[in-house]
Design a protein that fits this description.
heterodimer; A: 636 residues; alpha+beta; Alpha-Beta Plaits; 4-stranded antiparallel sheet; 14 strands; 60% helix; extended; B: 157 residues; mainly alpha
Chain lengths: 636, 157
């Protein structure tokens, strides 16, 4: 059911056309290459050296990161951006494009930029250092000790100023304050050299800190230059470097025209690397190579003719998978069911011998999301937005399927919303069959009935699956017992007619006698009794569907709250209508978001935990054919 | 008469406050985890936002229940009702399922979402798996909400 048939394909060809064959396979993207059993066939492994490509790819991607700064920005631009489409001819031509000069240039620009930035940082630090000393009116170079005096610059905590003043009155020491900060003062200080050690100790006790000009500052200063002049020079340097940075920026921007080519080359090399990696999975001798892989049965003929048209020196065999092999799984569903494959894939692909649960699950999922959101306005809006995105953003692959799924769920929501919900919080009574706010009990019963149907259906699928796998007795009597017991018991409890009671007992008997696989009659009987206890799980499963009511009610009540708030806001003079409009739009968008999130997630949980657990075994591997790899462009 | 009304209002307030505390702690836990992870990998903001927002529903359920209480009392859009003492107690007790279940499940959902954030950081393709895990915790808040709504609906003033 709904899993595509897969065959094993084996290719034997002349070693000379190995790369050509791989290119064809990559272009077609039909085959998932498997590692050939080299030892058993006594073949050599193919070499697959890719380090030179790795190196080049690394350079290309960092160059592209550099260039991406000039990319056009904006959310809408990104959303609607199309990847450039590349055909075979362009793909081959790009290999002739000599990217090295551009890469070299970009790398040089980047290195130069980094150097300039660090230099600017250095000069800014120096400037910061000089800033408090700006008032010093002496040339930098003249601040040298003379024969009899020591000359120095430094800083002192403001609290110690008085102590230093006292000292200066008594001793052979003189100082001048250059600058006063909040907590420290900057000093120019002279003392007699004769008592250097003593003065040094005193100054240290006063928490005096020496400040020295750096080598660079002294070098920059001419004979007569004061601190102010040096600072001007430093600022000049910084400005000069900033100008050069701007120039570099401009040069970088000029290189932006090469971006598309670099992207293209990057992706071509990426695919090339994938090809070389895949060649490592082959086995070969001097003359021939051998490869094997999986292919959709329906594609096998197409592949053979494609390969035969490349070369004569080739043999292609395909056969059905052996019982011990585990072929990859390809889900195959008709178009309306395809978007729901996303939900199945999230849980896991079916094991061999199981089947694809997408189609049995889809109608329930469709209905449940609609019931959880149950708001016609939101449904229409969601469907419309998804359709617009599909039309204008032209997404591919998973995203496209997701948007399609969302469109379907929007339609379901709109439909069910019209029947049991409102339009942006305003119910249209003439369309409604049930108002959950007035009559929640009916909605609850509806939710439980739906749950009962799905759980029963899941058990039915389990029985069918069991019969297919030749577990006749257990399937027919135990699973069949549940299928009989559950509805019969419900009807009996409602009507108290004895015929339904008897039917329930018959079902229960089937479960008790065939519910356990044991051969020992006692173990079998008590094991069967225990599996009858599983009825509590069925009960819990069905009750779990009551969440449909809770989530459905939550959406309508929040929509109502938003509208009530709008009404209150309308009462405010002058700006009331504006506030009301903002609350209306913001509130309903918020509600739409959380309602769909909740509806989606909880409906999914119902499928996974309550439904799939009855019959579905996951664990299949996805089919991932050998094809082009791309990041920036799209190969056609 | 007056006391009944006060008790009912207290019930509504409890629903908002306890549900809100649960959500606030839960969102906080997940938010911390995601900010930490984003410092390494800022690209996946959208996926993390989803996980961080999930424990926020308990607060909304509490808010919604409080709103239903207000509707019942006529505080919104109707003439004020005057419930008896017993009816006041009934309304207060009706709010407890959503309030307490929301408080506890919000915190635990936050923990699940926080570990979900770490998982998405390593396996970006498996975003929906931790989301489903979080939904398993949320079930109990949803059931609490369900009972609160049914109870509030059943108490007619």
């Amino acid at each position: 059911m709904a899993i595509a048939e897969v065959q094993k394909v084996q290719i034997l060809a002349h070693a000379g056309v190995k790369m050509e064959i791989l290119s064809t396979l990559q272009e077609e993207g039909l085959v998932q290459i498997e590692r050939a059993n080299v030892e058993e066939l006594e073949l050599e492994s193919s070499s697959h050296e890719v380090s030179h490509l790795e190196h080049r790819l690394h350079r290309l991607s960092s160059a592209l990161v550099y260039l991406s700064r000039w990319e056009e920005k904006g959310f809408a631009k990104k959303l609607f951006a199309q990847k450039p489409q590349i055909d075979r001819q362009t793909r081959e031509e790009i290999l002739d494009f000599d990217s090295l000069p551009v890469l070299d240039k970009i790398e040089k620009l980047e290195a130069e930029k980094n150097e300039l930035l660090s230099e600017i940082k250095f000069f800014e630090k120096e400037e910061q250092f000089l800033n408090p000393l700006e008032g010093l009116e002496l040339p930098l170079r003249s601040l040298k000790p003379t024969d009899s005096t020591e000359i120095l610059l430094g800083s002192l905590p403001i609290s110690q100023e008085e102590a230093l003043k006292d000292l200066a009155e008594k001793e052979a020491i003189w100082f001048e304050v250059i600058n006063r900060g909040k907590r420290i003062i900057y000093l120019f200080l002279v003392y007699a050299k004769g008592e250097k050690d003593r003065f040094e100790q005193i100054l240290k006790d006063l928490n005096f800190v020496h400040l020295y000009f750096t080598e660079n500052m002294l070098n920059m200063a001419d004979e007569k230059d004061r601190v102010k002049d040096v600072m001007e020079k430093i600022q000049g340097e910084i400005q000069e470097k900033e100008r050069r940075l701007e120039k570099l920026e401009k040069e970088g921007q000029d290189l932006f025209i090469h971006r598309e080519k670099l992207m293209l080359l990057h992706d071509v090399l990426l695919s090339e690397r994938a090809k070389i990696f895949s060649s490592g999975l082959l086995g070969e001798t001097d003359r021939v190579f051998y490869m094997e892989g999986w292919i959709r049965s329906s594609d096998a003929e197409k592949l053979e003719s494609k390969l035969k048209s490349c070369t004569d020196a080739i043999e292609v065999y395909s056969r059905d998978p052996l019982p011990e092999e585990e072929p990859p799984v390809i889900l195959k569903n008709p178009r309306p069911g395809k978007p729901f494959e996303l939900v199945t894939k999230l849980y896991g692909l079916p094991q061999r011998g199981s089947f694809d649960p997408t189609l049995p699950m889809a109608p329930f999922f469709f209905l449940f999301v609609g019931l959880c959101v149950s708001e016609a306005g939101y449904g229409l809006l969601a469907a419309l937005l998804s359709l617009l995105l599909i039309k204008f953003a032209k997404p591919k692959g998973g995203l496209l399927q997701f948007l399609k799924l969302f469109t379907l769920l929007g339609i379901s929501t709109a439909f069910l919303g019209a029947l049991i919900g409102g339009w942006f919080g305003f119910p249209i009574r003439s369309l409604m069959v049930l108002d959950p706010l007035q009559d929640p009990l009916s909605f609850l019963i509806l939710a439980l009935v739906l749950g009962f149907v799905q759980v029963w259906f899941g058990t039915l699928l389990n029985m069918i699956n069991g019969i297919k796998n030749k577990l006749y007795l257990e399937s027919i009597f135990a699973q069949g017992g549940w299928l009989l017991l559950l509805p019969a018991l419900v009807i009996y409890l409602q009507t108290k007619q004895s015929i339904w009671g008897i039917l329930s007992l018959a079902g229960a008997a089937g479960i008790v006698f065939f519910g356990s696989p044991s051969r020992n009659p006692f173990a079998r009987f008590f094991g069967g009794l225990y599996s009858l206890y599983g009825i509590s799980r069925y009960l819990a499963d069905v009750l779990s569907y009551s969440r449909l009511l809770a989530l459905g009610l939550a959406t309508s009540v929040i929509a109502m709250v938003v509208n009530t708030l709008c009404q209150t806001a309308l009462g405010i003079p002058w700006v009331g209508w504006l506030l009301a409009a903002l609350i209306f739009i913001g509130g309903h968008l918020f509600n739409l978001g959380i309602s769909f999130l909740g509806g989606f997630v909880h409906s999914m949980r119902l499928q996974f935990v309550e439904f799939f657990s009855k019959f579905f075994k996951s664990g299949g591997k996805p089919f991932s054919p050998f094809e082009f790899e791309s990041k920036f462009v799209e190969f056609i | 008469m007056e006391l009944g009304f006060t008790l009912a209002v207290f019930g509504g307030a409890l629903a908002v406050v306890l549900g809100g505390i649960g959500s606030a702690i839960g969102v906080g836990l997940a938010g911390q985890a995601s900010s930490g992870v984003m410092s390494e990998d800022p690209e996946k903001f959208g996926s993390y936002l989803l996980l961080v927002a999930l424990p926020g529903t308990q607060g909304i359920y509490g808010f919604l229940s409080a709103f239903l209480v207000m509707l019942n009392l006529g505080l919104v859009g109707g003439p004020l009702k005057s419930p008896t003492l017993y009816q006041g107690w009934q309304l207060l007790i009706a709010c407890l399922p959503v309030a307490v279940a929301g408080l506890v499940s919000g915190i635990h959902q936050g923990k699940v979402c926080a570990s979900g954030v770490y998982m998405v950081a390593k396996q970006p393709k498996d975003l929906m798996k931790p989301v489903i895990m979080a939904a398993l915790v949320e079930t109990y808040a949803v059931l609490g909400l369900l009972i609160t709504i049914l109870l509030l609906n059943g108490i007619n003033l």
